[in-house]
């Protein structure tokens, strides 16, 4: 049985997280990272569901908007692959691609976001040590 809190970090570029808090004291940095993680964990499933509905109803505006928000929040946390998939979905929402491809991309995005969220939860496990946890896993 694998301890989910020892999950290897693959979907998140930890250097990006460390840059966010580079000039902050440990307490402030920990507080900020935990809050960003919580928001991502709350909002990502909503954004994915919104994109599912948008594809189902061929609502390109909703697809574009939800994908744009998830693209930005994923990039901010170093979830580069999730951000890339979101960017592709955003382009489809701008009429650059067919909605057939959107379903396939959304499945890939959803899987990637599940990995990102699992990794965020693992980093949050001992919230007072989130910076230590990031430092230990970054190599």
From TrEMBL:
Pfam families: Hpt. SMART domains: HPT. This is Hpt domain-containing protein. The modification Phosphohistidine is found at residue 68. Gene3D superfamilies: HPT domain. Residues 29-123 form the HPt domain. SUPFAM superfamilies: Histidine-containing phosphotransfer domain, HPT domain. It comes from the Bacteria. GO terms for biological process: phosphorelay signal transduction system. Keywords: Phosphoprotein.
